[in-house]
Amino acid sequence: MLIIARGIAGVGAGGEYPVSGAGAAEATDESGKYRKRPFIGGYLSDKIGRRKTMALGFTLQAILGFVLGGAAGPIQKIFPLFVVLYGIFLTLGEVGPGSTVVLTASECFPTSIRGQMMGFVSAWSKAGAAIGTQVFTAILNAYTDDPEYGNRVAFLIGSSFAVLGALVAIFVIPEVSRRLDDDDEAWKKYLAEHGWEATWGDNVTKDPRGVMLDRAVS
User: Fold this and answer.
1) With bands split at pLDDT 50, 70 and 90, how would you rate the model's confidence at 192?
2) Do 7 and 131 contact (CB within 8 A), yes or no?
3) For the domain with range 2-191, which CATH number is right: 3.40.50.300, 3.30.310.70, 3.40.50.150, 1.20.1250.20?
4) What is the pTM of this model?
């Protein structure tokens, strides 16, 4: 649900990919900005936690999105102001959900099933982007006589999904330990209590203490 919300909100507001009319320089500049934003999200994740960082990013993005959608006309008349606000809007999307959604999803699963579950999560993320692309294309096409109003509607709907993402982050995502071993132990205990038997490693093979290029260092 979180990843679908992020996909729809991002695509709806034009935040996932550069618009088709963007020049090469604009697209390159935007890609460069995307590389910087996750560092802010990573810093906040360690300071206030993953869930709070995600919820904070979603909430601030929703607020700014409602402002851009509700006052799009006056804001766009001052083009530098629109550019700055839209840049902040995209930044909040990457600082919050963009930096934490995959990390949070992966930490919710024990090591033995993390790969399969992350594949499932990734499929949902693509579904969110696909849904957002189709839905907002139809919305914009419905307002060809008034493109400005269509853009406002897209911002408002996308921001509503950002609110949904914030609520899910706060009330649905479980609080997990920073130590992945804790989740693994809880998973093993759960399997044992339900009659499952499994072998976890052979207790013989010695793990290398480090890896350097293509050879193990013992």
Assistant:
1) confident
2) yes
3) 1.20.1250.20
4) 0.69
